[in-house]
Amino acid sequence: MKPSKNNADLLHKQYVHSLKREKRKVRLYQLLIFLLFFTSWEFSSKMKAIDPLLFSSPSKIIDLLFSKLHDGTLMENLSVTLIETIVGFILGTLLGTLLAAILWWSPMVSKVLDPYLVILNAMPKVALGPILIVGLGPGYASIISMGVIISIIITTIVVYTAFREVDSNFLKVLRIFGASRFQCFWEAILPASFPTIISTLKVNVGLSWVGVIVGEFLVSSKGLGYMITYGFQVFDFTLVWLALLVIAVFATVMYQIVAFIERKIVKE
Prior knowledge:
Layout: H1 2-46, H2 52-55, H3 58-71, H4 73-105, H5 107-122, H6 129-136, H7 140-164, H8 168-176, H9 181-192, H10 194-219, H11 224-233, H12 237-267
Helix pairs in contact: 3-12, 4-5, 4-7, 4-10, 4-11, 6-7, 7-10, 8-9, 10-11, 10-12, 11-12
């Protein structure tokens, strides 16, 4: 018995070591791609293989980054967009999950609303921007609403599908013991759908950023979307690239936070 246990421990250690080694290789390749991309970008801009006015260069973007950090304008615009995005992200996910719960709770409501959900999902939500601005005014409410609208429908559809696909045997057991419909939802449906809800959060990260930036394109006088619009207006494409890279960094951070929460929930 003892040799077999030692062999199992050795195999486990080898497996863990191989996973760590593979993870290090992945990180190394990611770093190499990152360095190669920005080095090629800088070199191409210096050699004018690409239009330096249109594509700028990493060195110019870094210089502008420090300049904007020094005068405080970057942090001011970033904080506005970040707050709008987080609020839109949270509201879109919560409202979408709530709508999914209502559809699960009432099959009649689900049957009535199903075609409308399909239509709303197919509709380009960005086209609703001007209507929101007129209806809610040119402020934070209309911008946050853009972030919510873009994510709420897809959240509703995906989460509702997850609710319906929960094993019916769970519900049968609970009903045998006299559980109410609310208890069935709270004890079986919702916990079983947590992985899908968390996965939906990943999608909503990107959708919320898209909605908020589009809203800022249309109406805002502050935020990263405004920086992009202003950069285009004055042909300062270095400012545009700076805003885009900042968006990419913080969208990635939000995504990694959601991925971390997913790993914790799945592990549990």
